[in-house]
Amino acid sequence: MDGCREKRRRCTKLRVTTDNNDMEKMMHREIERQRRQEMASLYASLRSLLPLRFIQGKRSTSDQVNEAVNYITYLERKIKELSLRRDELMLLSTGSLLDDSNDEMEMMNHVVVRHCLVGVEIVFSSRSCSGQPRLSSVLQVLSENGLSLLNSISSTVDDRLIYTIQAEVNLSYSYIRQLPNCFCIYMLQYNFQIVT
């Protein structure tokens, strides 16, 4: 009888051990299945973010990941190009070089007076605070110097007021050539930096 009990005990232990192994295998399979589902979801998300031209004809996930790396490199290059283009446009709009003294430049008021097809274009930028010329007084100076307002655009960018004024010439062209000097003298009283 003791032999039978011992045999039953061993069988029970064997069943428990086998059950534990089966349970571990099932848990491992379930964890692995969930991991694969999550990875498939992440790859699908990655594919959805890539433009079609980067993944067209690429079926394997490793090819798609390589194309994602290529796309990131492409975007970095485009960002650099656009940053350079933005800097060029800012340079053209302000008429001055962007240098290391950006903080100083941001604090200063700027005025640019240019001749254009219809007469004169004036762009001035100032910190939005008191003590700056009002648009009405600027327009009065233009009127006193023989110009008629054609177009006026104002906007606020980074706490700066930017005015772009286009004015038509009512007087002779030779007189208009003197206008930038008159206008610049007027703007100097408001501590504007004259940009040529």
UniProtKB/TrEMBL annotation:
Xref: InterPro entries: bHLH_dom (IPR011598), HLH_DNA-bd_sf (IPR036638), MASH1/Ascl1a-like (IPR015660)
Predominant location category: nucleus
Gene3D superfamilies xrefs: Helix-loop-helix DNA-binding domain
Domain BHLH residue range list: 23-75
SUPFAM superfamilies registered for this protein in UniProt: HLH, helix-loop-helix DNA-binding domain (SSF47459)
Pfam families membership: HLH
Record GO cellular component, one term: RNA polymerase II transcription regulator complex
Subcellular location: Nucleus
GO molecular function, one term: DNA-binding transcription factor activity, RNA polymerase II-specific
Keywords (A to Z) from UniProt: DNA-binding, Nucleus, Transcription, Transcription regulation
SMART domains the UniProt entry points to: HLH (SM00353)
Superkingdom classification of source: Eukaryota
Assembly behavior: Homodimer.
Protein name as catalogued: BHLH domain-containing protein
